[in-house]
Amino acid sequence: MDILAHGLWSYAALHKVHHAKAAIVAGMLPDFIPFAPLLISRIMKGTFRFSAPPHNPSDIPRLVYQAYDFTHSFITVIIVLGLITFMSRKFYLFLLAWPLHILMDIPTHTSDFFPTHFLYPLSNVHVNGMNWGSPWFMLLNYSVLLIIYGFLIFL
Questions:
Q1: Structure pTM?
Q2: Following DSSP, what letter does each residue of the chain receive, concatenated?
Q3: Which residue in 78, 2, 5, 70 sits closest to 34, CA to CA?
Q4: Which of 75, 99, 121, 124 keeps 20 to 30 A from 147, CA to CA?
Q5: How far apart are CA 51 and CA 73, in angstroms?
Q6: pLDDT, tens digit, for every residue of 81-103?
Q7: What average pLDDT values come out for the chain (155 residues) when binned by 10 residues?
Q8: At residue 95, what are phi and psi to the nearest 5 degrees?
Q9: Taking the mean position of all CA atoms in its chain, how far away is CA 119?
Q10: What spatial distance separates the first Cα and last Cα of the chain, rounded to whole Å?
């Protein structure tokens, strides 16, 4: 799923928790961490072009794939959220946007483009899901978000 949709879904799901707006960031962070350095580098070099998947996987550095695997792993989530909870002695509900992000990516990524290895580094198991960048899915996804936000705003 695209990064904007992750932020919108995160807020929609967690809008009633304390620090709900932080859920937007927490929901976008798993994609921001691996892709932001690549995006900044390409903008600075003048080689950035916006397009939805499929991309040529060989155009993306291996480090981006490795960072993606770490940020999209429930193992990483358990460790990081466990450490945050242990150190702060408090569990922040808005951080549930991170595992929500992973749950949404599992069925919306294909094996060809950033499959979600949700048990990485213990396993590379993944689901060969649908392409989130296909026009029909983007239309459906944002239509449902529009309906949900309509309810949130007007009810």
A1: 0.92
A2: --HHHHHHHHHHHHTTSTTHHHHHHHHHHHHHHHHHHHHHHHHHHT-----PSP--GGGS-HHHHHHHHHHT-HHHHHHHHHHHHHHHTS--GGGGHHHHHHHHHGGG--TTS----TTTTT---------TTSHHHHHHHHHHHHHHHHHHHH-
A3: 70
A4: 99
A5: 25
A6: 999 999 999 999 999 999 999 99
A7: 97 97 98 94 84 69 96 98 98 98 97 95 97 95 98 91
A8: -70, -10
A9: 15
A10: 27
Contacts (Cβ under 8 Å, ≥6 apart) of 20: 11, 14, 94
For the chain, how many residues are written? 155
Whole-angstrom distance, CA of residue 136 vs CA of residue 141: 9
* Two structure tokens written together for 105: 């990516």
CB 75 within 8 A of CB 20: no
Amino acid letter for position 41? S
